[in-house]
């Protein structure tokens, strides 16, 4: 039954690839801290027939280090056409950085890449390219700082041509990191009128771990695929440099499975749009309160399409299918 469902998912994804052109996509990420951002970026790059990646914005914290991680990933895929845009930066480190320490932003530019020092300006310029004939997707998997700063400078009409796929918040009053890290920016994002707003909240993303047979199959390609090797090498560095202490529902290690892939659900949702494979999506009016709660408010809330739960009674049955899709696409890239 699982194999049949997996084949069904892949058939839908292949139909999307064949009958639709790749969607111009902007990724806003805080890659380097938790590992899910790296998996999400790799998944996007592994699927160029779905995602026409235009820009990677690295937001919050030490964005120079985050930029190096993004740049090294792009270089392994040979995607020097995708610029890296640096958001506002602070000092500090992150568990994945040692993996990219040997690949500087200067080297990325020497190799043919582009780096924008003013990442918010680059984000604004790219979003302004959206129009009725050129619908954009923004995949938001970082605190909303960069996006929240740009929206007030953008013609509100432009948002009619931009779909947002975000990992943020919770439908059950839990405070979530991407929201509480910059509440005013999150409020700006949630108060905006997007063409479509897809939310991957904690309610479902906490179950996003890939393990078991699909992970062992993925591991078996380590010496056969440079993109699988990218994941295993960077994941191992992240894990050994402090990532092992990150919380998860199921124990994890590079040998037995992933940490929680919160952000991958947002990228996966963008890939299968407008379908809701494996998920039950509820349209709810949400606001961000001043204490960082994503709350249902029928009067003030904007409509958000939230992945409230998975379509299987056991959530891990659904995340296993998602994991197969994500990991197999990386193997095949």
Can you give a write-up of this model?
The protein has 14 helices and ten strands. The protein is an alpha/beta fold and 333 residues long. It has a ten-stranded mixed sheet, sandwiched between helices. α2 (36-45) packs parallel to α13. The longest helix is centred in the N-terminal third of the chain and has 18 residues, at 2-19. The two termini are 26 Å apart. The model has no long low-confidence stretch (mean pLDDT 94).
Q: Characterize the largest beta sheet: strand count, sense, and whether it forms a barrel.
A: 10 strands, mixed
Question: What would the principal axes of the Cα set say about the shape?
Answer: globular
Strand order of the largest sheet: 4-3-2-1-5-6-7-10-8-9
User: CATH topology, anyone?
Assistant: Inosine-uridine Nucleoside N-ribohydrolase, Chain A
Given the helix and strand composition, which structural class is it? alpha/beta
Find the CATH superfamily: Ribonucleoside hydrolase-like
CATH architecture: Alpha-Beta Complex
- Enumerate how many helices there are, as a single number: 14
Share in helix = 25-40%
The H-and-E topology, N to C, reads as HEHEHEHHEHEHEHHEHHHHEEEH
């Amino acid at each position: 039954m699982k194999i049949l469902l997996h084949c069904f998912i892949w058939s839908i994804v292949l139909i999307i690839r064949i009958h639709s052109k790749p969607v111009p996509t902007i990724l806003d990420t805080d890659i380097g801290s938790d590992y899910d951002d790296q998996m999400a970026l790799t998944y996007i790059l592994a699927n160029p027939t779905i995602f026409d990646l235009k820009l990677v914005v690295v937001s919050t914290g030490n964005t120079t280090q985050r930029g190096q991680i993004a740049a090294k990933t792009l270089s392994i895929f040979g995607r020097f056409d995708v610029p890296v845009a640096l958001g506002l930066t602070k000092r500090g480190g992150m568990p994945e950085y040692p993996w990219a320490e040997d690949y500087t932003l200067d080297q990325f530019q020497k190799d043919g890449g582009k780096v924008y020092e003013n990442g918010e300006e680059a984000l604004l310029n790219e979003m302004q390219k959206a129009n009725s004939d050129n619908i954009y997707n923004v995949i938001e998997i970082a605190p909303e700082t960069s996006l929240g700063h740009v929206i007030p400078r953008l013609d509100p009409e432009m948002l009619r041509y931009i779909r947002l796929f975000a990992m943020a918040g919770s439908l059950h009053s839990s405070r979530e990191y991407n929201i509480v890290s910059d509440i005013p920016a999150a409020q700006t994002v949630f108060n905006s009128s997007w063409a479509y707003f897809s939310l991957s909240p904690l309610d479902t993303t906490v179950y996003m771990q890939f393990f078991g047979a699909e992970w062992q199959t993925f591991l078996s390609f380590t010496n056969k695929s440079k993109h699988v090797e990218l994941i295993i090498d960077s994941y191992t560095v992240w894990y050994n440099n402090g990532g092992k202490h990150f919380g998860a529902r199921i124990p994890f290690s590079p040998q037995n499975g992933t940490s929680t892939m919160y952000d991958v659900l947002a990228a996966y949702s963008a890939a299968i749009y407008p379908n809701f494979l494996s998920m039950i999506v509820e349209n709810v009016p949400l606001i961000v309160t001043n204490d960082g709660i994503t709350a249902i408010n029928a009067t003030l809330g904007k409509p958000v399409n939230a992945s409230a739960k998975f379509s299987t009674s056991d959530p891990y049955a659904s995340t296993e299918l998602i994991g197969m899709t994500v990991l197999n696409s990386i193997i095949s890239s």
